[in-house]
Design a protein that fits this description.
388 residues, mainly alpha
Length: 388
């Protein structure tokens, strides 16, 4: 992310009204204007619905409310900050800063002053740090909690926290951000050590299968677990989290950081493995190797994959001629088949850990949380606008 000068935040009460763009077709390159318009439509729907970014998120089926600094909302704000980079509207920053203020820049899961280690509860810190870097006044309150949480982890030798692959995206980029803030390379090393434990140690032999260049979501799904068709279970969004994390790390780390090659290799290998798995309609199934197991269109994994692919193309890691048609086909399909005229995004699988969760995934069904799918959509679109 490139940083821009921040203006004193005053929440904008009136959101821009934008017309839904005409959907592109097939593999045609979408115009930058149409991509930004689609992102505005989707984001305006969300900001109108959640006009108070501190409002608790009700979950009726569980008979509880969730604080709005949980991981789903943290990932949305990552996407919003990416949108701000390509569509620099003050109201996006105002909304993010109000969100931080409403939570006192704190972390979900903090109890009796003890800060969390759980990656899901750290996710909000990515946007906190971004906003801190953006503000010339550098308000320490923005990063006090997240810095203390990461430093408390650094004070131990424990590196096995990330036992599910979603956690790699939730927390790993924060260590890179902290290394950049302090100049202390130990943060980069700790991120690598924790990532490598997930890759090679969790489960029987790690959660990454080098044979297929894909990841099992957690130890419940490594062999001998199989999908109904006898294939390994590679959950779309789970692999999407790794793709996003690799791109994020490459975007944040210095060019001479010693672990970059691992992240570059992983991103390229995964993108090459994912390319032939794309559906004819442009999407990816929730079960990457068993299209018959809850097969169908799904936005979140699809958006994460093309974000990573677009990043790879933009930074010379992936061949543009090979991957651009894949990226454009997926983006055009999401705009055409998922984006409602009012900005609601359909075909988002709700929270869970495997293909059968939150089914059926349809055009009209609202997922249990309507923010993380939008975050993925905004990140993908923002990176696509940078393609030549």
């Amino acid at each position: 992310m490139k940083l821009k000068k921040i203006i004193t935040p005053v929440l904008c009460a009136t959101l821009f009204a934008t017309a839904l763009p005409a959907a592109e077709t097939n593999e045609a390159k979408p115009s930058k204007k149409s991509v930004i318009t689609a992102m505005r439509v989707a984001n305006d729907y969300f900001m109108n619905k959640w006009s108070d970014p501190g409002q608790v998120i009700p979950y009726p089926s569980r008979k509880k409310n969730y604080e709005a600094n949980l991981w789903t909302r943290g990932y949305y704000f990552e996407g919003l900050m990416d949108l701000y980079e390509v569509d620099p509207q003050q109201r996006y920053l105002d909304y993010a800063i109000e969100w931080g203020n409403k939570h006192n820049w704190g972390l979900r899961g903090t109890k009796n002053g003890v800060l969390p280690r759980n990656a899901d509860n750290l996710c909000a810190g990515q946007t906190y740090i971004y906003l801190y870097q953006l503000d010339p006044k550098k308000p320490e309150k923005y990063i006090t909690a997240i810095r203390s949480a990461i430093d408390s982890m650094m004070a131990t030798n424990k590196i096995d926290d990330w036992s599910w692959i979603d956690a790699v995206q939730m927390a790993m980029p924060i260590f890179a951000q902290m290394g950049n803030l302090t100049g202390n390379k130990a943060y980069y090393d700790r991120a690598y050590d924790m990532y490598m434990f997930t890759k090679t140690k969790h489960g029987d032999n790690g959660l990454y299968n080098p044979k297929d260049s894909l990841w099992w979501r957690d130890a419940d799904f490594d062999p001998p677990y199989k999908e109904p068709n006898g294939e390994d279970c590679y959950w779309s969004r789970g692999n999407g989290w790794i793709v996003v994390a690799m791109a994020r790390m490459l975007d944040l780390l210095p060019e001479d950081e010693k672990h970059r090659k691992e992240y570059e290799t992983m991103l390229v290998s995964m993108c090459k493995a994912l390319k032939p798995l794309q559906r004819e309609d442009g999407f990816w199934n929730v079960s990457l190797h068993d299209p018959s197991n809850y097969g169908g269109k799904e936005l979140s994994g699809t958006a994460m994959f093309i974000y990573g692919m677009a990043y790879g193309v933009n930074h010379g890691l992936l061949d543009a001629a090979e991957f651009s048609p894949v990226i454009y086909k997926a983006w055009n399909a999401m705009v055409k088949d998922c984006l409602h005229p009012n900005g609601f995004l359909g075909y988002v699988q709700g929270t869970g850990k495997e293909p059968k969760e939150a089914q059926p995934v349809t055009y009209d069904r609202e997922p249990d949380f309507d923010d993380f799918g939008l975050g993925a959509f905004l990140m993908a679109g923002s990176e696509i606008t940078k393609m030549k």
